[in-house]
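User: Can you predict the 3D structure for this chain?
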Amino acid sequence: RAFALAVAHEYAKIYDEEEASRTTSPEPRGMLLNRSKTDGVHGIWGHGLSDLVLEAAHRDPDGTWRLGIGS
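Assistant: Here is the predicted structure, written as structure tokens:
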């Protein structure tokens, strides 16, 4: 549980950084409810933060984490 909360916290920081640095609005695209690409530091597009789900996590021998994030 603590690991999932830490991942969620980091993703929230990324979306906050995008919001603070963007000059375009993440408006829905036509019939799709997905967000359009914004021009912030991360160029987030597709899904809003509340759409994301941590589906998998794997730790490599070097200590690097690989995450499977779905929606």
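DSSP finds one helix and two strands in the chain. The mean pLDDT is 87.
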